[in-house]
Amino acid sequence: VRWDKDTGWHDAAVTPYGPIALDPAAAVLHYGQEIFEGIKAYRHADGSIWTFRPEANGARLQRSARRLALPELPVDIFVESLKQITAVDKDWVSDADEASLYFRPFMIGDEAFLGVRGAHKASFYVIASPAGPYFAKGVAPVAIWLSTDYARAAKGGTGAAKCGGNYAASLLPQQQAQAQGCSQVLFLDPVEGKYLEELGGMNVFLVYGKTNTLVTPALSGSILEGITRESLLQLARDRGMTVEERKVTIDEWKQGVSSGEITEVFACGTAAVITPIGQLKGEGFSVGDLSAPAGEVTMSLRKELTDIQYGRQPDRHGWLVRLDG
Ligand code: PMP
Asked: Does any domain span residue 316?
């Protein structure tokens, strides 16, 4: 779907996959005017195809657009675009266990000019890719690396937007994490450097087993407002857990795991749903035991959310939207 300042959104079309022609002076290539989303389609046992809370992704895309001086795409066009891609070939949505069709909606400023300002032309695209189960060999705890050299976001910056630039800034810390044998990087707040924010591509949760409490960093203005995060908070409240969105220091994590008060830690996002975190490592320290199995709360929340997504449990919050038929 194209946009320009005079005519607004127009020319929606489904076209064969292929390269995009861009003017070498297009705004996206010089000023990083790009935002995106990640959302999946799931096949239910009766063959029907559904997606999860697309209005929430559509609304987040609008917030990202505002921050990046891009035009806001109406949420109904966002949802319709997922339906139209699904209609091209229903076989793209596999019926294998925990398989899905992953959609990558994105928007770029593609007006050609060299002065620094928001583009007066933009394009919204959706590409799709079949995805197998995230954990092919069963859900396994991972190690994560605490980055103290870099922050993911700045105060007043773009941390709460899902824009390519945030990920560009996290690639080097992510490489460092991998060099330390960790699968993801954990970032602290950009102001004091002591409060948890999130991983490179997931939000983070601590479970206090004895008090049946689930804790996650409050939305600070620099954390991405994850849709999985919000859904898990709801499911935890539904099952009577105490839920706290607040500031969490890195020392609280280290001490809580060492003292046994924190019984489980996990990360969440659309791609993996929930990933258990077995170990936290950083410059000169390591807490947790990577060989311990994933915790009970982690696994039962993961099962409940995937059961809703795959239609194995009633959708009591009205989160699913049908994409076919
Ligand atoms: N934080 C970051 C930085 C992410 O890239 C993602 C993935 N979109 C998340 C959190 C989780 O968000 P969601 O649950 O909406 O996938």
From this structure: no
